[in-house]
Amino acid sequence: MKTKNQKSANEVEILTGRLRELSYLSSAISVLHWDQEVYMPKKGADARASSISLLAGLVHTQFLNIDHDGLLSSLGKKLSAKKLQPHDAAIVRETVRSFEKASKLPETFVKEMAELTSKAQHVWVEARTKNNFALFAPYLEKIVAKKREEATLLGYEVSPYDALLDTYEPGMTSAEIERIFTDLKEFLIPFITQIRKSSIGARPRTNTTSAQFPLEKQIAFNTEIAKAIGYDLDAGRIDVSAHPFTTDFHPHDVRITTRYNLKDPLESIFPTLHETGHALYAQGLPHEHFGTPLAEAVSLGIHESQSRLWENLVGRSLPFWKHWYPRLQKTFPKAFTSPLGAFYRSLCRVKATPIRVEADEVTYNLHIIIRFELEKALIEGAIEARDLPRLWNERYREYLGITPKDDAEGVLQDVHWSSGYIGYFPTYTLGNLYSAQLWNTVRKEIPDLDKRIAKGDLKTLREWLRVCIHRHGKYHSADDLILNITGEKLNPEHFSRYIREKYSKS
Ligand code: ZN
Fold first, then answer.
1. 456: alpha, beta or left, given left = phi > 0 and alpha = psi -120 to 50?
2. Among 13, 262, 435, 495, who pairs with 308 as Cys (CB 3.0-4.6 Å)?
């Protein structure tokens, strides 16, 4: 006869088998998405949208079917009675959580949302190209109405925004975000004004526009950096897309994209560092748990902390370029003639721009705060979609001291809302905050980290991240993970201090 523990373990094994099948199906969807961004011809868009939506429907239905014989319910009871081993408990806890969310959304709702956002994305592209918000407004109104409905279906205690935010950053509330963002705003707005007046904000970039940077050389340089960080190219690849992204089908197949500008190789190096940061996380997830939450990222905020850490804390640091600048000079001998110090200072230029993806690490978070404030007000019904262009421009004037020249450069610049991603933006800033807090800890734990990075050793840092974060999957919540590693909960002070120290120096 089997003992109770053995029986639970077998049940978890059966659940894992079902989850794994679902993950293989989801991987197929990801391959289609990847191909859409990297290779698909324009005319393939409609057929591809249908394939993806059909498969997404299958995944949703099959996921809801996971408890057809009461397996998950039975494991849920054992979880409540604390009768599961810790790893099994984490699998069941997270699966129950997703299952409860998914079962609150009727299939018709899921399909309508998929269809609406698929159409809205096309309209958004057209509206942005034609700089015509009025084209997109009716779709955005419908999306907002649907997202309000989604929040009601999912349920919430204080703000409907909380229900949406929880999808991307489990456990986080809008009240907490508001508290963090208010402090950040109070620090950043006067700080930016202050450095704009000093010489720091005014430093010109190294003049590279006159030179040409052959694509093959840029690709080779980016690949060398990605490999040096520890990106396993036998389990990944680097392609080109308009908007760089990372996608993972399995920890053994994690792909990134970047983009190249023949006039400026730095425009690919930073996106490559960013996406490699995401890729290292995905490659570092324990493949033996593939399909279960133990092989999934904790949250989007934690994912973003990995990309921002490599892009900004490492990639925009002097030690990093001590090693890489001579290589950059050797690769492009005519272009980079200034000494290291001047080159480094050119990377630290702070200048408000209307475009989020072009923003420096200081002003970036104000772009996010504006989006958070507006989308929260939209979901709560305090404002309507038609008010957005005016409010958007007002906030940009107030927070960043600039006015977008038109809506294409303003409210229409991001794809997120047309995709139905409302509640997503705050995770970018959470990533910045987490990354600075992790950076503070790793520098204490590895006191010679700067020296190692200056010698080209990036694997020590990669290994630390792997041990502390990547290999745990969703075993811990974001809160507990950060507490375990750094000894405190999310503390935005680390980010403010990092910015103050780096950008107050002359
Ligand atoms: Zn990212």
1. left
2. 435
Domain spans, the chain: 4-155, 174-503
Say which of 169, 275, 304, 311 is annotated catalytic.
275
Strands, sheet with 253-258, edge to edge from the N-terminal-most edge strand:
236-240, 253-258, 246-250
Distance from Cα 492 to the centre of ligand 1, integer Å: 19
Comparing C-alpha atoms, which of 457, 55, 338, 87 is closest to residue 47?
Answer: 55
- 275 counts as catalytic: yes
Neighbours of ion ligand 1 (CB under 5 A): 307
Q: Which residues contact 87 (CB under 8 A, 6 or more apart)?
A: 294, 475
Render 180-194 in DSSP notation, one character per residue. HHHHHHHHHHHHHHH
Positive/negative CA dihedral, 454, 459, 462, 463: negative
The whole-angstrom separation of Cα 321 and Cα 307 is: 18
Q: What distance in Å separates the CA atoms of residue 59 and residue 97, rounded to the nearest whole number?
A: 16
CATH of region 174-503: 1.10.1370.30
Residue-wise over 91-117: b if at least 16 C-beta within 10 A, else e?
Answer: bbbbbbebbebeeebeeeebeebbebb
Reading the chain (506 residues) residue by residue, the pLDDT tens digits are: 556 667 777 999 999 999 999 999 999 999 998 998 889 998 888 888 888 888 888 999 999 999 999 999 999 999 999 999 999 999 999 999 999 999 999 888 988 888 888 888 889 989 999 999 999 999 999 999 999 999 999 999 999 999 999 999 999 999 999 999 999 999 999 999 888 777 555 555 555 555 689 999 999 999 999 999 999 999 999 999 888 999 999 999 999 999 999 989 999 999 999 999 999 999 999 999 999 999 999 999 999 999 999 999 999 999 999 999 999 999 998 889 899 999 999 999 898 999 998 899 999 999 999 999 999 999 999 999 999 999 999 999 999 999 999 999 999 999 999 999 999 999 999 999 999 999 999 999 999 999 999 999 999 999 999 999 999 999 999 999 999 999 999 999 999 999 999 998 64
* pTM > 0.90: yes or no: yes
CA of 224 to the centre of ligand 1 (A): 20
Task: Output the CA 258–ligand 1 centroid distance in Å.
Answer: 12
Q: Ligand 1 centre and the CA of 456: distance in Å?
A: 24
